[in-house]
Structure formats: structure tokens, C-alpha cells
Amino acid sequence: MSRLSPRALNCAPSPTLAITAKANQLKADGHDVLGFGAGEPDFDTPQHIKDAAIDALAKGKTKYTPSAGIPELRKAICEKLKTDNGLDYAPGNVIVSCGGKHTLYNIFQAMVSEGDEVVIPAPYWVSYPEQVKLADGTPVILQTTDETNFAPTIDQLKAAITPKTKIVVLNSPSNPTGAMWPRATIEALAELAIQHDFYVISDEIYEKIVYDANEFISIAALGPEIKKRTFTVNGMSKAYSMTGWRLGYVAAEAEYVGAMNRLQDQSTSNPTSIAQWAGLAALTGDQSFLAEWCTEFDARRKLIVAGLNGIDGLSCLMPEGAFYVFPKVSALYGKTTPEGKTLQSGDDVADYLLATQKVAVVPGSGFGADDYVRLSYATSRATIEKGVARIAEAVAALK
Ligand SMILES: *Cc1c(COP(=O)(O)O)cnc(C)c1O
């Protein structure tokens, strides 16, 4: 009998971190590994943001802050939500936590209890179901495919709602697919939430990385009734390339934010003080680098999609946001590798690519979508070109 808690025993390891560890081991052994696993921008944190942290350090801003974050940052978040998203929130509606992941964790802890269902459209970000389980809730997976551009149909959404539905998770643009939901589907979700009185967690972490004429929508901005039921989640990791700083936040009804504040008081307390000052500089400083990053991501996006679709057996939708592609690989099932292994899953395909061509991709199984793999294009164009060529070679060697 394990002496671990059922909670710990049931908590799955992160598959994205696992593939990164495998790839790093191969690199350490001297192999020329091409990594497409990274879930973070490859750009450095902009200098003015780093300077703000250095300045905070020099000025001794190194002590506890209010658990929910420094008032300056919470005020700046309210201004951001007003300007970018058309949302009116007071600082009492906002809490800053140690990354978007921690923010989501606190929301589930504050809102979910045994018997509550949380609807999670798949392919999903790996942490949602695990965090729901850690809150004793029941994840209800709503499966979508590339046939509907990885968005549920309105009928699918309706069918997933039961009297036990407490929350529906919305992540548009999505990790792992880069897909965005059509406006009509987001509007339908808002109507359903009001009608059935459930909450929506809108994970808006990829808000700033949107291509072409695609429209980013904050569901809370659709009206006061849905705003009351929405947790608008965002953070500094993706838009400002600040993954290591650990800053995320949510805006919601004050009562719920108050509960999250109590949980945070008794667990982590405040996010790192100097990171918060850097976060303030990120939100209030120059934003022009963002357009440059998006232009570069856009070029890589087109390069990788064209490359992958040029390979017989792979099919890849054009992502609308974020920095991932999610090609379907199931046409390769039944083929045999030169080593004599028959491919039967996305996991097999990912293992094969890593073993034979030293190309690290993340199998779709961890995202609730077995027939796909995820590649991040937060890497150089040269790496993308080499990676596509190696994948083509690996696929050509199949019988
Ligand atoms: C990266 C990511 C987050 C948050 O990451 P943090 O570094 O914890 O802020 C949240 N949701 C999705 C979908 C992500 O990809």
C-alpha cells in the first residue's frame, strides 16, 4: 500500500515536461536534437522589463507584498482589461498569482467541490483536468477534432451541459491546437452559462498572439450577466516572454477573488515581489515588440504548416493564434518502422521521430487527442526547416 495520498497518486505527470526531459537527455548524450516541445516563446524578456526588476531589487522592494499583489499592479491590470478587453473591473476584482497555472489552480480550489462537473473541450491544455481532479471535481471531456477546426459545435456544447455543470473552460487561441472559437460559438457558450447558471473560465493567455484577421474575444465583454459568471485569466508568460517569472492573474466577482485571496494567504502568499514590479513595467511599458514577435511567429507558422502538409500522411490545420501546430498523424498507423515496429498511436509516432531523427514533438495523448502530435514553432526558422526535412525522411522510411 502506498502511503501517498490518493490526490498525489492520481495526479498525472506533465507530458510536455516529460518529452523535454527525454530530449535534454539525448542532447546531453551528444545527439543533435531538434526540439519542438517548448511551451514558451524563444524570445528574451524585453530589457525594460528586466530593468524594472533590477530597479525594484536595488530599491529594496524585496519584502512581502499583499497576497493578492501590489496595488500598482492590480490597478494596471484593471487598466489593461479596460483598454484591451472593454472590461470594467476594480482592483478588488483582481488577484495576482504565481503564473496563470497557479491562478487556474486557485479558481478550481475556490469554486469546485465533489460532484461538480467541469467541461473541458479537448484537445486541452494538460493541466486543466488534473487541476479539476485535485479540487475533487469531475472533468467532462468534450471531444473536438480537426474537422470542426478544434471548436465544439453549439450542439456539442449543449449536450455536454448537465445540472452538475459548474464550469466550462474556454481557451481560444488554444494550446495545443492554436485554434480559435468562432464568435457565434463563444456567444452560444455565454447564453448557455446564463441560462444554466454555470461559470466560464476564459484562459486568455494567448490573447496577444493572434494572426490574420482573426478576432480575439473576451467572453466577459459580451454583457453584464456573462461577466458575473466569468473568470478572465491571463498572465505575463506568453505575451511578454516571462515564463520563468511566474506571474498570472484573474478578474472575477469580488466574492470569488476574496476566496482565492484567502487560499493564497494560506498557501503561497504573494507572487515574488520583484517579479510583480517587472510585471507592472510589462503592462504599462512599450508594447511595440509584440508586433515584431507576432510577425516572426507568423512567418514560422506558415513555414511549418506548409512543410508538414507536404509530407504524405500528415495533415495540419493553419493555426489562428498561439505558437503551436497540431498535425494529425493517424494516417501513419499500420505502417512499420525500419526496426520492425508498427505505429499505432501518436505516442508511437512521437517515439519514432525522437529515436530515429532526434526530433522532439509532444504526443497528443496528454492533450486528450491521441491521433495528433504537438509541435511548438517558438524556435528558429532554420530549426523548423531542418525539423520538417527530418520528419519527411522518417516518414519516407516507413513501410
Ligand atoms: C502557458 C499557459 C498557461 C499559463 O502559464 P503560466 O506560465 O503558468 O502563466 C495557461 N494556459 C495555457 C493554455 C498555457 O499554454
TrEMBL record:
Entry keyword Transferase: yes
Task: Give residue ranges for domain Aminotransferase class I/classII large.
Answer: 32-391
Q: Any idea what this protein is called? A: Aminotransferase
MF GO annotations: pyridoxal phosphate binding; transaminase activity
* PANTHER family per UniProt: ASPARTATE AMINOTRANSFERASE (PTHR46383)
The question of whether Transferase is a record keyword is answered with yes
Similarity-based family? Belongs to the class-I pyridoxal-phosphate-dependent aminotransferase family.
Q: What is the lineage of its organism?
A: Bacteria, Bacillati, Armatimonadota, Armatimonadia, Armatimonadales
- Enzyme Commission code(s) on record: 2.6.1.-
Q: What class of enzyme is it?
A: transferase
UniProt keyword terms in alphabetical order: Aminotransferase, Pyridoxal phosphate, Transferase
Mind listing the GO biological process terms from this record? Answer: amino acid metabolic process
Which cofactor is recorded for it?
Answer: pyridoxal 5'-phosphate
